[in-house]
Amino acid sequence: MLASCPTGRTVPTIRFPFWLLVSDSPELPLAFSSVKKMEEYLVSNKTKIAIIRLVNRYTIKTVVKQLVKSGHQFICYDPYEDGTGGHSVSIESVEKDYAG
Hints:
This protein is of the alpha+beta class. The chain has a single domain (18-99), classed as Trna Endonuclease, Chain: A, domain 1 (3-Layer(aba) Sandwich), CATH 3.40.1350. Helices cover 29% and strands 24% of the residues. A five-stranded mixed β-sheet has the order 3-1-2-4-5. Strand 1 and strand 2 (30-32) form a beta hairpin. Helix 2 (60-69) runs antiparallel to helix 3.
């Protein structure tokens, strides 16, 4: 994935449900608020995605544990189809707000 999510801009909360894309590389996991946005990204970026998952309030705790175990610290929320833009969301804040 060629995401370049700015780490200075943050969004206070992620809305559920959201689509999560995780690659085999150490790059940021990507989260999309709609299947349309995710599809636009996937069509524009022919990258190998290891995980595509719909995340909701009931699955967030498990997802956060997996992301932390994989060494991720941020999620890029709603990047553009070319992988730029989006909002950087710390996994720590997601864990605090939702996975408690």
